[in-house]
């Protein structure tokens, strides 16, 4: 490893690399094309950042391109890579949809060595002759299984055609397998498989299923909001239900933010910043937020809606318990939903029928979570210490749940719920009784003052 990287790692207090970071270092440094698999939260971003940056030559044009399926993941990857690239005097540019394209074009003129982007924006720049990839040496697909699906796969194919160099190194990274036939068809090569999914990580994620009627799920969130140090990502299958819940929480004066397709890049970035800073208790999102996002020390993930398949459950769950930390995954639903979920994933799930322990304000997960604020996103290697390793949730093959609607991008998504300003931290969440009493008092005062002249 580069001496400056080693010094930075030691000064940062890292004691040991994760299994995936160790396994891919030499193959990537040697320029081999790989298909790397590892559980979520095991430091895959740094796994490809360290060896690939060492192969980049300063001031020699665009040499490394990293593709990500979402704006949030692309921005997060940019942040991580920029921190390490600056050590070697390298420039990193983010190319994402929804961001100001004029600023991106101005920075492209400086020929940054590293590009991180979403397929849609990269294709747009290529088609407009604004981006040339003739000097590219390496292409990385982060969350490759997602990128090599449907319309996104066609965009990746367009980018590969524009590269037009069979010697370019290709690295696929993800937590779930890529269809090998699709990958081979796009890139016309065989990949070296590096599978670290069965390597135990020192982590402990608990999985609970709370038996909850559909009309009681919003009230469950209100109960959870009253718990000290509570913060959770809440996943929905549809934008429609997300909006309804957002309106409910806003009426209850509960701080939250929303992350959905259709919002501008600045709106989504503002929502993420609010949640990471601890200003919002909940981040309401669809599966656009299920992949790759790193919220340090996030204690809880909530499935408001039952995931459609085991793979989705695995990626949602991966937002908590990252890099060896503890975490809790809660799923709402009925008995039938509980049976479906147990068929989808190979992990122990506790079905909670009475009052959950988390609502007793004595949960170790919340006691040990961050107090909020000043937490920078990271993809740090694990210390290798902590509690005994537990089995990571893995999807069972060919098991899905039928749903009536989906969250495909649509015109309705463009009218998505915006960020809702939270109450001040020193304010307590009002109980229903206090709120009703206050409203009743205001009505009495209104009747009493009705007809009286207003004071000057």
UniProtKB/TrEMBL annotation:
- Molecular function GO terms recorded: ATP binding; hydrolase activity; nucleic acid binding; RNA helicase activity
Q: Does the keyword ATP-binding apply?
A: yes
Q: Which Gene3D superfamilies match?
A: P-loop containing nucleotide triphosphate hydrolases
User: Region labeled Disordered — which residues?
Assistant: 363-456
Which segments show compositional bias classed as Low complexity?
372-387
Looking up Pfam families in the UniProt record yields: DEAD (PF00270), Helicase_C (PF00271)
Source species, domain of life? Bacteria
Q: Where is the composition biased (Basic and acidic residues)?
A: 423-439
What InterPro entries does the annotation carry?
A: DEAD/DEAH_box_helicase_dom, DEAD/DEAH_RhlB, DEAD_box_RNA_helicase, Helicase_ATP-bd, Helicase_C-like, P-loop_NTPase, RNA-helicase_DEAD-box_CS
Which SMART domains does this entry report, sorted A to Z?
A: DEXDc (SM00487), HELICc (SM00490)
Keyword annotations of the record:
ATP-binding, Helicase, Hydrolase, Nucleotide-binding
Family, per the entry?
Answer: Belongs to the DEAD box helicase family.
Protein name, as recorded:
ATP-dependent RNA helicase
> What is the species of this protein?
Weissella viridescens
């Amino acid at each position: 490893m580069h001496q400056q990287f080693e010094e930075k790692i030691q000064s940062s207090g890292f004691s040991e690399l994760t299994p995936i970071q160790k396994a891919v270092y030499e193959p990537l440094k040697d320029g081999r094309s790989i298909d790397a698999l590892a559980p979520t939260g095991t430091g895959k971003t740094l796994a490809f950042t360290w060896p690939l940056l060492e192969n980049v030559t300063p001031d020699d044009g665009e040499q490394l391109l990293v593709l990500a399926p979402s704006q949030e993941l692309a921005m997060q990857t940019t942040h991580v890579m920029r921190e390490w690239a600056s050590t070697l005097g390298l420039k990193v540019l983010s190319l994402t949809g929804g961001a100001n394209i004029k600023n991106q074009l101005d920075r492209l003129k400086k020929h940054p060595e590293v590009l991180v982007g979403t397929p849609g924006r990269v294709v747009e720049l290529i088609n407009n002759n604004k981006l040339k990839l003739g000097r590219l040496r390496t292409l990385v697909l982060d969350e490759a299984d997602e990128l090599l699906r449907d319309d996104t796969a066609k965009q990746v194919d367009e980018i590969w055609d524009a590269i037009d160099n069979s010697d370019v190194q290709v690295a696929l990274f993800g937590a779930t397998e890529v269809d090998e036939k699709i990958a081979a068809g796009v890139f016309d090569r065989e990949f070296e498989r590096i599978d670290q999914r069965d390597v135990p990580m020192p982590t402990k994620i608990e999985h609970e299923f709370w038996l909850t009627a559909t009309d009681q799920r919003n009230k469950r969130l209100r109960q959870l909001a009253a718990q000290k140090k509570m913060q959770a990502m809440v996943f929905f299958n549809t934008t429609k239900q997300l909006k309804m819940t957002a309106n409910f929480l806003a009426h209850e004066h509960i701080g939250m933010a929303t992350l959905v397709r259709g919002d501008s890049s600045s709106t989504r970035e503002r929502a993420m910043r609010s949640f990471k800073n601890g200003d919002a208790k909940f981040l309401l999102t669809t599966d656009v937020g299920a992949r790759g996002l790193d919220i340090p020390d996030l204690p809880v993930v909530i499935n408001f809606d039952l995931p459609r398949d085991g793979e989705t459950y695995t990626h949602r769950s991966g937002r908590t318990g990252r890099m060896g930390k503890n975490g809790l995954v809660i799923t709402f639903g009925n008995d039938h939903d509980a049976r479906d979920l147990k068929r989808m994933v190979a992990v122990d799930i506790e079905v909670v029928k009475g009052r959950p322990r988390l609502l007793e304000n004595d949960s170790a997960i919340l006691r040990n979570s961050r107090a909020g604020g000043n937490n920078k996103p990271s993809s740090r290697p694990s210390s290798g210490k902590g509690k005994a390793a537990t089995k990571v949730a893995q999807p069972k093959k060919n098991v899905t749940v039928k749903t009536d609607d989906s969250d495909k991008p649509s015109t309705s998504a463009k009218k998505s719920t915006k960020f809702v300003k939270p109450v001040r931290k020193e304010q307590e969440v009002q109980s229903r009784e206090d709120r009703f009493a206050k409203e009743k008092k205001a009505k009495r005062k209104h009747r009493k003052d009705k007809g009286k002249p207003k004071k000057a």
